[in-house]
Amino acid sequence: MERWIDYYGNVSHYLSFERGYDHLEISGMSKVEVQPRWIPPHEQSPLVRTILEQLILNHSETGLHPLEMREASPRIDHEHEAVIQYANEIFHEERPILVCLRDLLARFAEEFKFDSTATTVNSTVEEVLVNRRGVCQDFTHLAIALCRAKRIPARYVSGYLRTHPPAGKPRRRGADASHAWVSV
What we know:
Layout lengths: L1 E4 L5 E4 L33 H9 L24 H10 L6 H15 L1 E2 L10 H7 L1 E2 L1 H14 L5 E7 L15 E7 L1
Parallel strand pairs: 3-4
Antiparallel strand pairs: 1-2, 5-6
């Protein structure tokens, strides 16, 4: 087994088998420390222009590399004409970033429909934008493309959402499954 520190400073391991196996069990343990973050009221968040100016100075409080989160990737074409046009309707340099993001989410809620039969893992952001249907990964890819079309860094975050409904109540639809989010 190989061990290394990845690009973001995480301890990583690589394990490869040359032959088949009858049983494989991998367990892991993590300790995660979290701290509450202060988030300003939407209207008091930095302007989009300010965010873009800070990027030019390569200023990042998180230690991440935000300039790299503005580039195209295999799943995200942010240079498609329809993506750029939709992004221009939402993001303006003189608006606070959180106001823009709130508007983006509101538009998704109003204009798009969750439909697990509408897309596949190979669907493009353009197809999702045109058809206005998809699942969390589709909407996440589209949100990233819209941000990147305006040169705002955004990245894909995935995880497992585990819910604990009140006693006697059913779990929420789509809960207890893998999900996708956008980090801006």
